[in-house]
Design goal:
281 residues; Dihydrodipicolinate Reductase, domain 2; four-stranded mixed sheet; 10 strands
């Protein structure tokens, strides 16, 4: 058995919060540079150039890439041989989130009740925490901050199995296009197919953890990702929804077995500030 200290987790999460807010992952930055090099529309090129300039300013000055520093969403992989010296893993992650958003002067956006009082919790907690248990003694934490603009453009459809591949293509493409400029394109499109309604939504979000543009390991789904990316970028929506070739930087699909009578399909978008940070403790 391996015992992990509460403060080790909290301090690591604190650093993750600031890292994710201020530093765009290299794979996302690379895709933006590729898009700028291939974008034929002047206005779209201007926006892509501004996005890359903003990235450099944020990194150089340790300031957030976007004023909406998001809901802190964590994906945790914990070994079955890991224990804690005090408290719980959830408590440690929330404590680290509080410290990170305070130290980094990051905007606190979480309200304590979704419908009635809607009072700000003042520390950006509670975080959303998804936990997977695996064999061994590793503890790995990935933070995926989700801003309101892109998270509000989330979709779920319980398609009939007879809708087939074309039904998925039509649904996902329509979701991105009708979202317009709200999710701050160019976006990364996360798609979850299968499971139940809740599982499909989780798959869509989890797909955004993948390195940008790395295809699904299943050739059939990799081909579908490429077809969706082509269809979305042919829409002409473009950066910020104001026209151009680059509406999406990538499409990522995750899939799971489902009921014989169902074919759930969920869409979760990341804006061009596709923030994430990872640590292994």
């Amino acid at each position: 058995m391996r015992t992990v200290d509460f403060n080790t987790i909290s301090d690591s999460v604190q650093k993750l919060c600031i890292q994710a807010a201020c530093n765009l992952p290299a794979d996302v930055s690379g895709k933006l540079k590729d898009a700028l090099a291939s974008e034929p529309f002047p206005r779209a090129r201007y926006f892509l150039d501004q996005i890359l300039t903003n990235e450099k300013i944020a990194s150089d000055n340790r300031t957030p890439l976007c004023q909406d520093t998001g809901f802190a969403v964590f994906f945790v992989s914990i070994g079955s041989q890991v224990t804690f010296n005090r408290g719980t893993l959830v408590e440690a992650i929330n404590e680290g989130t509080k410290k990170g958003y305070a130290e980094g002067y990051l905007r606190k956006s979480i309200v304590n009740d979704p419908l009635f009082a809607r009072n700000n919790t003042g520390d950006n907690t509670p975080a959303i925490i998804h936990i997977d248990q695996v064999p061994g003694e590793k503890l790995e934490i990935t933070l995926l901050p989700k801003g309101g603009g892109c998270e509000n453009m989330s979709y779920l459809s319980m398609l009939k199995p007879s809708a087939g591949k074309q039904g998925v293509v039509d649904f996902v493409t329509d979701c991105v296009v009708k979202s317009g400029g709200n999710p701050c394109p160019p976006v990364i499109v996360g798609v979850g197919i299968g499971g139940t309604a809740d599982k499909a939504c989780l798959l869509a979000k989890k797909s955004l953890l993948r390195e940008t543009g790395i295809p699904n390991g299943d050739p059939q789904y990799a081909l579908l990702e490429a077809q969706l990316l082509e269809a979305i970028n042919k829409s002409g929506l473009g950066p910020q929804g104001l026209g151009g070739k680059t509406t999406a930087l990538a499409v990522h699909i995750e899939h799971f077995p489902c009921h014989i009578a169902s074919m759930p399909v969920a869409v979760n978008l990341n804006c061009h500030s596709a923030r994430r940070a990872f640590t292994s403790i």
